[in-house]
Amino acid sequence: MVDDAPSPGDDLRVDAGQSELVRRAQSGDTDAFGRLYRLHAGRVYALCLRIEGDAARADELTQDVFVRAWERLAGFRGESAFGTWLHRLAVNVVLADRRAAWRRDRRVTLDEEPVALASARAEDPGLALDLEAAIAGLPPGARTVFVLHDMEGYQHAEIATMTGIAEGTSKAQLFRARRLLREALGR
Amino acid sequence: MSDEPRDPSLDPLVRALPTSIEPPRDLWPDIERRLTPRRRGLPRWLPLAAALVLLLLGGAVLRRLARDPMPGAAPVASVDPTIPVDPSAGAERALLASLERDAGSLSPETIATLRRNLAIIDSALAESRRALAADPGNGDVQALLRLVQRQRTTLLQQAARLPRT
Known about the structure:
The structure holds two protein chains of two kinds.
Chain A: H1 8-26, H2 30-52, H3 55-72, H4 82-104, H5 127-136, H6 140-151, H7 156-163, H8 167-185
Chain B: H1 11-16, H2 28-34, H3 42-67, H4 90-102, H5 108-134, H6 139-160
């Protein structure tokens, strides 16, 4: 891993290259936008997959994120890195989908009582895969908070704002998510 | 930064997870189909449109001056020879040279109007050429460019026909 670490010069070159792609995409160049998609699709898909817990839905949402990004690209002023802007947009798109899903199905809410998870260890050999499977098996509310807090680094206050839940609910969901994951992983 | 201590039993596993997971299939073709064509260079049309409006107004002023020249106007200004001219437009070059020769016989108001309009239209021409360079296939910008070029020729022709004092 250390050998693959980019130097600061590499970062600058990457940023400059992406800035040019962004500029071209802003002027309507879909090929340039396609290259931006190739650079960022994995990160966006990972976020969608982990919050949704469903590969087909993650597939659809990833498309939605990039279509939305194309529509809003004119408003991107380069005040942050394109990847940061895109990631935040992806979080907003996925959470909007989650809110719509929660409205559609009142039986599943952020305040739901978590259920015990089936052990993920039996399904996948690796611990990382175990964790991925266990996260996918979390109730939607707990999964969303866990991914945003423990994986994406958002704070409870930010999660509360983004999801529309109380900060205390966010903390409770994180506590539940962690407990369920420890149980599922036998840790 | 997170605002809550990490869970020591889960944190190593979380950190080991990849930040990126490639989609199982290429989503780009579906995404590309959904992209609405961006109206390339649209903002560049604004100065073009503004230039055309001003040009029409300027043309009206020139026509009025042609019908009713200012009496006793002193010839103090000349056509700015630094104004860029399309090098392919020989007729325009000849018209501009003629105006420079006769500039002393035109009123200052007429010369000022002419200079203002030429500057506007040359700026619009440069802008539209840049837009066309960025998007050579844009037929709308091509049409606008031709229109502005024609307006430039018309303006110079009108100026050449103005009565001299």
